[in-house]
Amino acid sequence: MQFQAICFDLDGTLLDSLADLAHCTNTILSKRGFPEHPVDAFRYFVGDGAKMLITRALPEEVRKEPLIEKCRQDFETAYRECWDEHTQPYDDIPVLLDELESRKLKLTVLSNKPH
Question: Residues 9, 48, 84, 98: which is the catalytic one?
C-alpha cells in the first residue's frame, strides 16, 4: 500500500510547545494566587485541550466549572499572544517534512487549537 497523504498532530508531535503552554498557564494561575508548576509537570496536564489543561493545573479544591471556564478564557487570550515565544519544531521535523514533500505526499495537520 502506498500512502498519498499523512496527517500529523501539531503539539507534542511536530512542535515542542510545552514551555509556552506552561508559561501562559502559570501566568493565569499566578494572577489568581494559585501555585505555579514546573514546565515538566505540564507533560501530564496537556493532551485533551485547553479546558482539561486548566482543570489539571488548578488546585483540586478549587476545580469548579465557573472558575475553570474563566481561567480557560484567560488562558486562550494569553496564549494567542505568546504561543510562539519558545515553541519550536522538534529536531529533524523540518527535514522529515521536506522529505515527505519531495515524495509528493500531501501533508496535513490536525489540532484542537482554535487558531
Answer: 9
Known catalytic residue: 40? Answer: no
Residue 115 has pLDDT above 70, yes or no: no
Residue 109 has, within 13 A of its CA and on its CB side, a CA count of 12
Q: Positive or negative CA dihedral for 96, 99, 101, 105?
A: negative
CA distance 52 to 80: 18
pLDDT in tens, 24-45: 999 999 999 999 999 999 999 9
- 74-83 average pLDDT score: 93
Cell of 50: 485547553
Number of domains in the chain: 1
Q: Does 67 fall in a domain?
A: yes
pTM beyond 0.85, yes or no: yes
For 29, the domain range is 5-110
